[in-house]
Amino acid sequence: MRFVYLAVAVFALDDRSSRQTKVFLLPEKARHHLQPLLDAFNGMGVQEMHGPDALTWKAAKKTQEFDLVWSYEYSQFQHLGPLERRHRINHLPGSYVLVSKGHVYETLLELQGIHGKYDFNFIPKQFRLPQDVDEFSAAFRERKNRAQETKADDDPDYNKRWLLKQQSHRGVQFFSGLDQLGDHMHSNDMIAQCIEPLLISGHKFDIGLYVAVTSIDPLRIYIYHNALLRMCKLKYPKHLDNTADLESYVVDDYLPPWEMPDLQEFYTEIPSEEIEGTSHFKVLKQYLESVGIDPEKFQSEIYGDVVKIIAGNREHFMDSEQAVRRQTKQPHEQLGNFFEMYRFDFMVEDTGKPWLMEVNQSPNLAPKYFNSGTDFTMKSSLIHDLLHMVSITAPGELSVYLPQLNAAECNDRCSDVKQVWEMPCWRCPGWFTENEGNTLLEGATEYARRGKYNLVYPTVDKQYSRFVSGGLTAHDEAFERYLASFEVYPAADRKLSHHEPLLCGNREHCSRHGDCVNGACVCDIGYEGKTCYIPTGKKREKVDKPKPAFKVDDTNLQPANLRQVDGQEKVQPQIAAYFMLGASILLVAVYLHSRAAKVFLLPETFRHHLSPLLRAFRELGIQEYYGEDAMSWKAAKKTQDFDLVWSWEYSKHQQLGLLERRHKVNHLPGSYVLVSKSHIYETQLQLQSIHGEEDFNFIPKQYLLPKEAEEFKVAFEERKNQVQAVKCDDPDYNRRWLLKQQSHRGVQFFSGLDEIDAHMNSNDMIAQCIEPLLISGHKFDIGLYVAIMSIDPLRIYIYHNSVVRICKLQYPNHLDDTADLESYVVDDFIPPWAMPDLQEFYPEIPNEQKQDISNFQVIKKYLAKVGIDPEKFQREIYGAVVKIIAGNREHFVNSEKTLRHQTK
């Protein structure tokens, strides 16, 4: 009876609002990358806030209408209205000290000054030019003169490299000598120590830890049990210098770890859309152990680095949050509304030491799909567990409060203040103040909801407490005491009965997978844990394994394999084998001419980028060829076994067998005239000589050095001396040239003929720079999907939609080498529906289910809005496609004839 009374006593209804539906505010329109977050909200029954300004930060004033704010960009804290304790905001004020690369290294140096270098030596040395030039020169000479390590005798630069990160260009290059310093003394460029990486199957990799800081006072830090493990696409070079491909040492687009031969034995489950699979962090630890590196020491170091850099900034975070509270005139000073999930990206040195490379404040939650698997479930799980842990509470929900025991009960049950797990005692004399008790209750219930997050601070042994800047608060000490009580009093010695922590007031508190009975969750079948967050018997849909292209229907042959033994049918192995062999030969011979199943050949191993293609094949009922050499071009000889060949790289047409009219191969012989940048420009010049420049003037002028140096000089002077356009205050308007160097990725601007001598032996390309039309201040490009279905007769189709890619940064007022590459080169990009000037044309944002609005039609509407004839634009762009293809039709016909003759 007392237990029932206690459960009722600790739950009370908040009278301030009757709203029991949980609501989130997402004050941003662009959200295509947040699908796992939106799915988690939907699964937890959390609705999005609607109404005027709901997609902007102006709505943040209306705090009674939402319970949680989630933003991908930096939070605009100044717009926040009055916060109650239940409110949650997903960014910590002051996070710049971790997520800004310059700040985090300066923070490390400050902490080295306080605690010594031994504990804070996990970010590679960095030097900013020109102010750190003397310190860098000394460090450069010290490493250069260091005795060569015997383990790398074949690499004279082993452990002596430096990376130059230029402000004017994306990417990096290697700094080879102090004589280069003069070129960077006015650049604000950064030079960083180059770490010699541990390799997996010859590939460099990085590891990203998902770190949740759920409270600043008391400080609580969790790390998700799994991690992001990204493998460079290309193998690491034997000697690393500026000639190496960037994809061999910089992780951008990447390979999944389960495709690495050295790791495959450690994966018992491959990640998919149904299961999270084997933990990548666990796999990495197993691999480290296999190469002689202590995995537990590695985990202790990498977790410790995370904790120390956060703990060392705790006072800064507290001051930043207090400043926000003062600025927004919050009704109470109690900290705790703000939390953060970071991704800490580490590189692992060949010694096994982890080095922190960067901290991401808003890690990408969009799942990455590979043909062999996906991290969809991991990202879905980590965001679901995070939201469950921080708890989203509506104002009308039952709230958990600490019970108040009377004096007699306190004396009877609460004499031992070390038994902090005894929640009902927390309000007794000599235990905690009311504020401390309520704050501890929030931490204890959060800890019970942690899911697959591991608490890494605080720890029972207080290993990292000395690094907490500003020292421990009363709230820190209370939570440490709570954790320690579980060590002092093991579960077997604790009398939980009615003192069991009370964790729920309704089904919502039980993850919607259990009922709340007297303050405790009674889980549904298939779930367990204090709050029913752990699935134990989740049923999965049966996934059919790929079937071979040739399958013998042997159902009618089964009786021949059986004989009666003791009244039962038993298999006769030898008879069965011989009979089936003969039957298979007969049936396959017939099948070659009567196969009804459609079959495609994909002669490449790597296919993670082809998920939409493979999905289309499945939906069309087209099976993959699984015969001998199925993933190589050798199988192309067996044309009776497949109907279509699809390859991503150039087709090896010479390997093709005999083709019937029904066969389809997805590359045209001779396509190099279109897809090679130099060939297509030469093609335009040839077509200009035949048809005139008016019809073939849609590729910017290009000049290859040194052979076209004289023609370029004439063109350069002509553009330089042309009358300046009145509409522009830019002296270089329509006079710029781009230099595309063969020895480097990216581009730079060619400013004068005095530079040309430096490129006369380079085979570099100089191209006319086109002045772009801007959308919301951003440069963009448009990609048309063009299908050539036949060469004779010539049939060309263009898909009704197109890809429109917007540069990540706004176009500069004056474009030169100081401009950020992301402002004028489309690589990583922003979607068009995120642009203010286009949003009126998108009544619905494209998603995984549908895209009713054509990006091409949106561009046409925008053109009409700014006074450009959209129909003329469509005629010109479609016409350019048709003319360049039609002008090469004879070349394509001859190329196919040559191939047919070659392959007989």
UniProtKB/TrEMBL annotation:
GO aspect biological process, one term: microtubule cytoskeleton organization
GO cellular component, one term: ciliary basal body
Pfam families: TTL
Keywords: ATP-binding, Ligase, Nucleotide-binding
Reaction(s) the record says it catalyses: L-glutamyl-[protein] + L-glutamate + ATP = gamma-L-glutamyl-L-glutamyl-[protein] + ADP + phosphate + H(+)
Gene3D superfamilies: ATP-grasp fold, B domain, Laminin
InterPro entries named in the record: TTL/TTLL_fam
GO function term, MF aspect, one: tubulin binding
Signal peptide: none
PANTHER family in UniProt: TUBULIN POLYGLUTAMYLASE, TUBULIN POLYGLUTAMYLASE TTLL5
Protein name: Tubulin--tyrosine ligase-like protein 5
Species of the source: Thraustotheca clavata
